[in-house]
Amino acid sequence: MKKAVYISFIINLLVCIPLHSKDRISEHLYALQHLINTNLAYDSIASIDSIIIWEQKLSPILEQENQTELLFRIKQLLVHVHSLHGNIGQAIDEARLMYEKAETLKYDLGIALSNTAIGDAYYCSNMSKEAIDAYKEAILQPVSSSEGNYYKEMAMLHLKAIFIRERNPKEAKVYREMLLKSDAIHTNRTILFFHYCSDVAYYIMVGELQKAQDSFHEAEKIYDSCKEPYYYSPLLCSRGLYYEAIGENELALSCYDNVLQSIKQKMRSISYLQVSYLKADLLAKTGNPQEAARLYDKISHITDSIASPSYTHRINSLRASYQESRMKVENKIEHNRIFMGGILIGTVILTVIIYLALHLSLIHISEP
Fold first, then answer.
1. Contacts of 55 (CB under 8 A, 6+ apart)
2. What is the pLDDT of residue 333?
3. Is the pLDDT of residue 222 over 80?
4. CA-to-CA distance for 358 and 107, rounded, in angstroms?
5. Cα–Cα distance measured from residue 151 to residue 115, given in angstroms and rounded to the nearest whole number
6. What is the C-alpha separation between 235 and 255, in angstroms, rounded?
7. d(CA 215, CA 272)
8. Are residues 139 and 151 in contact, defined by beta-carbon separation less than 8 angstroms?
9. Residues 6+ apart with CB under 8 A from 184
10. Fewer CB in a 10 Å sphere around the end CB: N or C, the chain?
11. In angstroms, what CA-CA distances link 263 with 100, 233, 240, 271?
């Protein structure tokens, strides 16, 4: 009797474990699809650490099932969270592998998503110029179908934010206006939220403080309606920028401190660097040179870690792979241009020959 009970228990266990595993995989996939569809990097259910672990389990399954679009969208999300997490080496490596795979498959949407991922990898490596080029490539990449995929709008947001930080209102305005023409600004909450946050900085830069305040209030309304953890730091940073712009320096410093404290030690990458610069510059401006100097030293240390030899090697590898593919594309475009030019010239010459032949034939007929 006991033997039969044991056997029954073992059989039930063998049946239940695979079913439970499949259920967990489905749950994880659903959670990642929710992030992708809403353009969130993480939420209260799917933390950054969880996303990294889940991707490792899900990618082989998606590849086996030929779910190529979902695979690339999850890969893009992975690069983005690695960059937020401060895992610069992993972000660079994943972006390179993603791009090479898209090129091998000749998958146009995969190439576009890879360009966005490459932009994220360059951006977290403090390489703005290269990030700008990659985001622009993502926007310009011809894609046969990208329904429900807002990678272009996210690239526009990144470009707008970079040009604002570089104090380039002309270029920032270009991508701001492109974004406003997109349907996503009316249908996607995350894109609208980050648009308002970046508008706070944009309007401060161009000296329109009332519009900056209005933009902050709109961003605040969105955050209050959902309390997404991904929105918390950008909203605080926007509040700090506005307080600083109106001379409420203590309140601004408090906002910057709260942002920096919310960023974990292992996540102290480019985001931590940018907010640290804001705080250090404000400290220097308000007569706290010693505290500002200590923070500048800390910034220098983080910058040096980003530019370490291991990262430099990976960045060079990414750049080589990316530039090689870009050269292939440019050569193909040039070849097509020459080919089409040849066809056009040939058509013109043939038309002239036919015209001359007909003209001479008419002259011959008209002669007595």
1. 32, 74, 75, 77, 78
2. 46
3. yes
4. 49
5. 10
6. 9
7. 23
8. no
9. 150, 153, 191
10. C
11. 32, 9, 16, 9
Tokens for 206? 């161009």
Q: Alpha helices of 39-87 — where are they, by DSSP H?
A: 48-64, 68-85
Mean pLDDT, rounded, for 185-214? 96
CA angle at residue 356 from 354 to 358, to 5 degrees?
70
**Rg for the chain (alpha carbons), in Å?**
27
Please name the residues in contact with 237: beta carbons below 8 A apart, sequence gap of 6 or more.
197, 255, 256, 259, 275, 278
- Within 10 angstroms of residue 270's Cβ, the number of other Cβ atoms is 22
Q: How many CB atoms lie within 10 A of CB 152?
A: 21
Contact at 8 Å (CB) between 53 and 235? no
Percent of the chain at pLDDT exceeding 90: 57
d(Cα 179, Cα 117) in Å, to the nearest integer? 19
Instruction: Over range 70-80, report the average pLDDT.
Output: 94
CA angle 326, 330, 336 (to 5 degrees): 145
CA angle 68, 74, 78 (to 5 degrees): 140
CA 279, 283, 289, 290 dihedral sign is negative
Q: Which two tokens stand for residue 319?
A: 């750049």
Which of 158, 189, 191 has its CA nearest to residue 175?
A: 158
SS3 call for 46 = coil
